[in-house]
């Protein structure tokens, strides 16, 4: 669920959920960005882009899984977002390069790989002052480059990402917190997995969720990549790819702990 301002978001939550549950749900809001086409009044967010060449520091090896190079899908310029993210960006990683194992590699090689391996995803930071363009080695794909504008949005979690302890609900009326949110906020639900987004909360669909907690605590959503015919990538039937990182690793600037999760019908 995405809103343009916090006051409007708080009002909607309390009107629909009641004062206590509404405040609890509103407290879960995170600042995020819709990644859209730049325009005269909506400039590109620094060097942020979908596809194109990687921006890596000299000497950085291209990430691989069992000898097969991953494909570069996006570069996020966090310096261009830092002023708006504030405390939600605890470190200044500069550029973030998002890599994933491309399913469109030669079949004989791809079928031997474990796409669920943590090594199938990589997020590599780079200092913008030192970063240089790096060309993907074969058989990794190189996608067209598309600069993106970062449109600020206040994001609430999808109903399936809300757990029973997050908000107060009537156990006689609802089987769990997701039932409460789905029943009262359903027409505002953020199941718009056809969009590209950064930070905030991911948009999920078809009852699937993107874990925002692990054994060590909260998880931060970094990037959501939807199916994109113009760029030439897809993640299964109406699929979306989500990059996340444990909050502790994010605070320490340790992007080796980043993970990718694909969701589709």
What is the SS-derived class? alpha+beta
Give the beta-strand count: 17
Kindly identify the CATH topology: Hypothetical protein YwqG fold
Helix content: 10-25%
CATH architecture field: Roll
Principal-axis shape: globular
End-to-end C-alpha gap: 20 Å
Give helix and strand order, one letter per element, not per position: EHHEEEEEEHEHEEEEHEEEEHE
Q: Round the mean pLDDT to the nearest integer and report it.
A: 86
Task: Count structural domains.
Answer: 1
Describe the main β-sheet briefly. 8 strands, antiparallel
Strand content: 25-35%
Number of DSSP helices? Answer: 6
What's the CATH class, please?
Answer: Mainly Beta
| Spans where pLDDT lies below 50 across 5 or more residues | none
Let me know the CATH homologous superfamily. YwqG-like
Q: Please state the CA-atom Rg, rounded to the nearest Å.
A: 19 Å
Keywords:
single chain; 265 residues; alpha+beta; Hypothetical protein YwqG fold; 8-stranded antiparallel β-sheet; 5-stranded antiparallel β-sheet; 6 helices; 17 strands; globular
Task: Give your account of this protein's structure.
This is YwqG family protein. InterPro entries: DUF1963, YwqG-like_sf. The protein is an alpha+beta fold and 265 residues long. The protein has a single domain, classed as YwqG-like (Hypothetical protein YwqG fold, Roll). It contains six helices and 17 strands. Strands 1, 2, 12, 13, 14, 15, 16 and 17 form an eight-stranded antiparallel sheet that branches. Strands 9-8-7-3-11 form a five-stranded antiparallel sheet, with no helix packed on it. Helix 1 runs antiparallel to helix 2. The two termini are 20 Å apart. The relative contact order is 0.19.
């Amino acid at each position: 669920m995405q809103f343009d301002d916090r006051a409007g978001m708080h009002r909607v939550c309390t009107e629909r959920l009641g004062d206590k549950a509404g405040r609890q749900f509103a407290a879960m809001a995170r600042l995020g960005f819709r990644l859209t086409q730049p325009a005269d009044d909506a400039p590109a967010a620094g060097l942020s882009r979908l596809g194109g060449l990687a921006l890596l520091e000299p000497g950085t090896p291209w990430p691989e899984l069992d000898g097969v190079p991953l494909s570069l899908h996006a570069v996020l310029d966090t310096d261009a977002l830092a002023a708006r993210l504030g405390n939600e960006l605890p470190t200044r990683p500069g550029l973030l390069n998002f890599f994933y194992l491309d399913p469109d590699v030669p079949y004989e090689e791809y079928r031997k790989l474990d796409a669920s391996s943590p090594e199938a995803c990589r997020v590599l930071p780079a200092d913008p002052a030192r970063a240089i363009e790096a060309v993907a080695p074969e058989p990794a794909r190189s996608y067209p480059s598309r600069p993106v504008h970062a449109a600020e949005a206040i994001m609430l979690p999808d109903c399936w990402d809300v757990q029973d302890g997050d908000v107060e609900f009537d156990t006689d009326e609802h089987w769990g917190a997701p039932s409460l949110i789905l029943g009262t906020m359903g027409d505002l639900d953020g199941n718009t997995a056809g969009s590209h987004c950064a930070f905030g909360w991911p948009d999920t669909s078809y009852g699937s969720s993107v874990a925002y907690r692990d054994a060590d605590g909260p998880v931060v959503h970094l990037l959501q990549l939807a199916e994109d015919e113009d760029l030439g990538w897809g993640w299964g039937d109406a699929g979306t790819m989500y990059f996340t990182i444990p909050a502790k690793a994010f605070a320490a600037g340790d992007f080796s702990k980043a993970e990718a999760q694909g969701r589709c019908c």
